[in-house]
Amino acid sequence: MNAVGIDVSKGKSTVAIMRPFGEVIAEPFEVSHTDTELRKLACFLEKLPGETRIVMEYTGSYWQPIAKVLHDAGFFVSAVNALLIYKYGNNSIRKGKTDKLDAVKIANYCLDRWTDLERYSPTDQIRQTLKTCRRQYDQYIRLKVNLKNNLIALLDGTFPGVNTLLKSAPRDTDGHEKWVDFAGKFWHRQCVCGNSEKAFANQYRKWCAKAGYRFNAEKAVAIYSHAGSQVDTLPMSSAIQSLITHAVAQLNMIIETISAIQHEMLTLASQLPEYPIVMRMFGVGPVLGPQLMAEIGDVRRFHCKQSLVAFAGVDAPPCQSGTFESKNRHISKRGSPRLRKTLFQVMSTIIQHAPADDPVYQFLDRKRREGKHYYVYMTAAANKFLRIYYGTVMAYFEKP
After folding, report:
1. pLDDT tens for each residue of 33-45
2. Is 2-116 in CATH node 2.60.40.10?
3. DSSP 48
4. Cα separation, 260 vs 175, whole angstroms
């Protein structure tokens, strides 16, 4: 039994090799994450007598090159949650943490859990690409929120309330929002009320035709009236115009990027076998569906529906000691926060549409009528949704 513990960090890792009863095969040594170095490590491990198993923490994405090379070389590789390693063997009073100590600790964990280790299996390229797109999607969403708040703050000084005048949904083709494009053209309230109402209506009609939006004469009157009633605090100068037009351009660039990523995610998700089953579930649409499949991954990797619920972190672990048993338990939140966020959005969609024949909505509504707190019935409904998801998708996979 050769237990190989690898403490992963960026660009390099520390490797320790142990055998039972504390026998040290190799003192901890460093390996760079280059193809040459990793192949040398694989050749060294191949020369060891007996069975060899390799354990590492899956922290970030730094562990993936090592796992890929060693898995392709035919070794048993197991990627373990960092929290399990952290809580393992903390029986020393002295505090000390080095990469070498961590590598030895991981090797000892490998020895103790030898028969319970789960073998690493690479994710197929479609699911991996879909998950990467989801990560980038989240990054750009945060940028979009910041840029939109910045634009609204600028417009509060030139055209207060313009973002509330035009409520059109984002365009499917590029994600553009009407009020953002409108602010790029009519960046100051004087651009609207500086001329007559008829002149503005004609100008607004031409802009709608050029920008690809529907013209409404009543909306033109409402915009003109609103502009005349507001007070601007920033001057109608070229400097302010430049700031606003640049803010609009930056926001639109991010919006177009998000729209492109959404279309790419939908294309990738449509290539997965469970796509038609998942998309038929109520509350899951072309935006949330790919996100849900990206975060859950291949549902067959979960042993049971409780494992999927625990992965999402919406389970409530028991709390009991002696005669005491807690009746007010909190969810673990040990799983994927992105999956919990997606589930929350799905539950919000279900509440908004209130489908009377949907089992998740029926369960959610019953908990709500019982007087449960908002987060309690939303989490409980997310738990039920995941159980239905697991059962439905697994039945599809097992179908002959």
Report:
1. 888 888 998 898 8
2. no
3. S
4. 9
